[in-house]
From TrEMBL:
This is Bifunctional nicotinamide-nucleotide adenylyltransferase/Nudix hydroxylase. Keywords: Hydrolase, Nucleotidyltransferase, Transferase. The keyword Hydrolase applies. PANTHER family: BIFUNCTIONAL NMN ADENYLYLTRANSFERASE_NUDIX HYDROLASE (PTHR21342:SF0), PHOSPHOPANTETHEINE ADENYLYLTRANSFERASE (PTHR21342).
Length: 348
């Protein structure tokens, strides 16, 4: 097949890379001499949904390619942002750094389900759709992988979905400490979903989270239980039946941190409230949170102590946050980014 474009772009999470992805990559390589694989959901903390780092995913893909093709494929890591327009602009900007402005670019993909709507966000690129492989699904691979009693048996079950190099990669990866922790995380999430399985309609939960700053620091907690055990998070939790949103935010904040500040001072410090409603922001169920930004006008940091379901509470310097992106629960880093401007759209 003669190349028809200057470059082709393939976007995905590839968690992990499977045979359906491999077929799309073959189409991309046949379409253009240069292929850019955009690794979505990069820089996250590891989770059952995103267990592999961008470097690990790039290794899986590279190992699955014939050696003669590897130099034609480049990898671009992009964070989620949880803002569709900002995410799409970041993808286009990063690809644009590698190709001339006049380049003819093909976007290769297929419409799998509602999550594939992102393919329509690149009108300047020519969409080339491949055929989805039936019964090939990363979610199913991860489920079998994290529920394995015998890793060899489990990998045999999903063998038709994966290339040989990916199966070998997964077997080696399962011996690392990350694997056992994510098995526990997966079990906790499945148990949470099972508890709501008999509800007459899919549950939509409402939570409240607080961003509290003082003297160049922000107040964070370490999660004490799965999901997200050991990760940094904003103090917050589920809204109670008879609470207003700000009341719930203050209650959860005080329960988890025992912040030594009077409620009146805290309410006076409220600067902004923002809804965070991306459908994929939580792995447990559809969860809409209301972020509250409190900026305390203090030169000294108030005392805090981890309590309730927080293992600990601590004041973290604002200048340290950008380097901690892969240590946060769910989208909490991006909530901080919204209020505090931690990332730049000009970043590599």
């Amino acid at each position: 097949m003669t190349p028809t474009h200057d470059a082709a772009v393939l976007i995905g999470r590839f968690q992990p890379f499977h045979c359906g992805h491999a077929r799309l990559l073959e189409l991309a390589l046949a379409t253009a001499p240069r292929v850019f694989v955009v690794l979505g959901s990069s820089f996250h903390a590891r989770s059952p949904k995103n267990p592999f780092t961008c470097d690990e995913r790039a290794s899986m893909i590279r190992l699955s390619l014939p050696e003669a093709q590897r130099d034609r494929v480049s990898f671009i890591a992009v964070r989620d942002y949880y803002q569709d327009r900002r995410w799409a602009e970041a993808v286009q900007r990063k690809v644009g750094r590698h190709v001339p402005e006049t380049a003819r670019i093909a976007l290769v993909g297929y419409f799998k389900d509602a999550s594939s709507y992102y393919l329509n966000r690149f009108p300047r690129w020519e969409l080339m759709t491949g055929e989805a492989l039936a019964d090939v699904d990363s979610t199913r691979v991860r489920q079998v992988f994290f529920e394995a009693e015998d890793i060899d048996v489990s990998l045999a079950v999903v063998a038709p979905m994966l290339t040989v190099p990916v199966r070998q990669f997964l077997k080696a990866w399962s011996t690392l400490p990350h694997y056992r922790k994510l098995v526990q995380e997966h079990a906790a999430i499945q148990a949470y979903r099972a508890a709501w399985k008999l509800a007459p309609f899919p549950p939509v939960q409402t939570t409240v989270d607080s961003v509290v700053t003082a003297a160049g620091h922000v107040l964070l907690v370490r999660r004490g239980a799965f999901p997200g055990k050991g990760l940094w998070a904003l103090p917050g939790g589920f809204l109670e039946q008879r609470e207003r949103l700000v009341q719930g935010a203050v209650r959860e904040l005080m329960e988890e941190t025992r912040l030594a500040v009077l409620e009146e001072e805290l309410l006076d410090a409220l600067r902004a409230v923002q809804v965070f409603d991306h459908p994929d922001r939580s792995q447990r169920t559809r969860t809409i949170t209301h972020g509250h930004y409190f900026a305390l006008a203090r030169d000294q940091l108030p005392d805090v102590e981890g309590a309730d379901d927080a293992a600990s509470a601590a004041w973290i310097p604002l200048v340290s946050l950008a380097a901690m992106e892969d240590q946060f629960f769910d989208d909490h880093f991006h909530i901080l980014d919204h209020f505090l401007g931690l990332t730049s759209d000009d970043e590599a």
